[in-house]
Amino acid sequence: MYFGDLSVLFLNLQKKYGGIFELYNGTARVIWVGDAQLIKTIHIPSTKTNFPFRSRHSWIDEVAINTIGKGIFFNHNLDSWKYNRRILTQTVMLPSFLRQFLKTTEHWIVKIQSELSSRTTTNRPANTLLSYYNKLSSNVSKVSKIQSTEELMGRLRTWLVTAQFVYFLPRYLRFCPPFYYFQWKHQNNIQWLDDYLTNLIINRKKEIENTPKDKPLGLDILTILCTANTERGPQFNKPGDEPDEPMDDDNLKQNLFDVIIGSIDSDPAIKSKVCEEVDQIFGNDRSHPMTYNDLENLKYIEACISESLRLLPTVPALFKQATSADNLGDFKYKGGQEFFINYHYVHHDETYWPDPTSFKPERFLDKNFDKNTYLPFGGGIRICPGRQMGLNTAKTLIALLFRNYTIDLVDPNAPLKKIYVWANECEELK
User: Fold this and answer.
1) Do the strands 331-333 and 326-328 form a parallel or antiparallel pair, or are they unpaired?
2) In this structure, is the dihedral angle defined by the CA atoms of residues 196, 201, 205 and 210, taken in order, positive or negative?
3) 384 is in an annotated binding site
4) Element (H, E) at 25
5) Residues 6+ apart with CB under 8 A from 151
6) For residues 105 and 396, is the Cβ–Cβ distance under 8 A?
7) What is the C-alpha separation between 211 and 170, in angstroms, rounded?
8) Nearest C-alpha neighbor of 178 from the set 161, 165, 164
9) Domain boundaries in the chain?
10) Which string of DSSP letters, residue by residue, matches 276-330?
């Protein structure tokens, strides 16, 4: 039983045994792949690939929120998966959504500044974040609603623990002492999430129904998904311009869950270049509203983000399952074989990344690298559909922070405190 950082264990195992090896998770054979050229075979960007699924083993059904065959991440039905991915991808790329996203992010930064100023000068909260939330919401927030949202965030983190628990602990052990208690706890958490998201969708649909048709609706992802291909929302088409159908509640619930689950300062020279780029684009006018074109021009900041994701990918490893028998390298496998793809190892392979442990954003300025050696969002047909939104979020926050603050770490040489539960999460940064 291993209780340390699993992402470190994954990296060390791959370094020890090489680009491809196999081990057993309980009685299940798992082939680990960290060779970029072999991963290229797995990540063929076509639905005819031998690896169209994350996994179809029973464990993935156990962690789904009662919506098997819905959404994107847990969907085993390719036709249903194509539909959901098509709608979700078009949703997050809507120009109106992107404009509202930038506007909302800028407003949050202003409110955070007020909150920090009030805390620093008076040791009292300014409550600007709450008032801004009330402005965006149709109902005035109550303490119970805020607590409920905080509980949701905590339970989503618990769900990541659930997925790790179910994947790595064989099923027969999960029903034996002392593990059966955790099995019960995780199943209750999944049911809570299912109930919460169901009620969220029901209430949002009621809000939409009660909103006069001449009044514009919100431009958040849930509202767009609820109204897509209806008279109140955007019209998305299938390939060939054939109209798509509206999304049912189960797909709404799973897509909402997928979206929620699916969110520099050690070198003074690098920080100086970031500040220089921010000054070049925005000048001295701190009130200048950010545009999508501004985001596109933040090339050095984007390179810093890319290099950060190379050094420490948010999701260092993912699984894929083969549909039919074949071979990969010298390894033969049967249909249903599960593969564990170690992106973290690929990102630290000296063959492709000289001096791999150093932070060098310049690697990404000329885009002169093999795309199969840089995989922070996965690859193939299951590549993260929200990757551009994630990059835009990071670019916006970094630009706005450096535009308004001089940021220094207390101890630039101190190690990053993080935890890994399917995804790397920073616990403390000083």
Assistant:
1) antiparallel
2) positive
3) yes
4) strand 20-25
5) none
6) yes
7) 49
8) 165
9) 1-57+266-430, 64-94+137-262
10) HHHHHHHTT-TTPPP-HHHHHT-HHHHHHHHHHHHHS-SS-EEEEE-SS-EEETT
Domain with residues 1-57+266-430, CATH architecture: Orthogonal Bundle (1.10)
> Strand pairing partners for 338?
30, 321
CB contact at 8 A, 76 and 265: no
Are 21 and 36 in contact, with CB atoms under 8 Å apart? no
Distances from the Cα of 28 to the Cα of 22, 102, 339, angstroms: 10, 46, 11
User: How would you write the pLDDT of the chain (430 residues) with one tens digit per residue?
Assistant: 556 778 888 999 999 999 999 999 878 899 999 999 999 999 998 888 999 888 776 677 777 765 566 777 777 788 888 888 888 888 887 888 888 888 887 777 777 767 666 666 666 655 555 555 555 555 544 445 555 677 887 888 888 888 888 888 888 888 888 888 888 998 899 899 888 888 888 999 999 989 998 888 887 888 888 888 888 888 776 665 555 677 777 777 676 666 666 544 445 677 788 888 888 888 777 677 788 888 889 999 999 999 999 998 888 898 899 999 999 988 999 999 999 999 999 999 999 999 999 999 999 998 788 888 999 888 888 888 878 888 888 888 888 878 877 777 777 777 777 777 778 877 776 6
156 φ/ψ sector (left φ>0, alpha ψ -120 to 50, else beta): alpha
Q: Is 75 left (phi over 0), alpha (psi -120 to 50) or beta?
A: beta
Query: What is d(CA 175, CA 200) in angstroms, rounded to the nearest whole number?
Result: 32
Is residue 235 within 8 Å of 229, Cβ to Cβ? yes
Query: Residues of 253-285 as b/e, b for ≥16 C-beta within 10 angstroms?
Result: bbbbbbbebbebeeeeebbebbeebbeebbeee
DSSP 231-250: TTS---B-TTSPBPPPPPHH
- Cα separation of 109 and 114, whole Å? 9
Threshold 0.85, pTM exceeds: no
What's the rounded Cα separation, in Å, for the pair 222 and 200?
A: 9
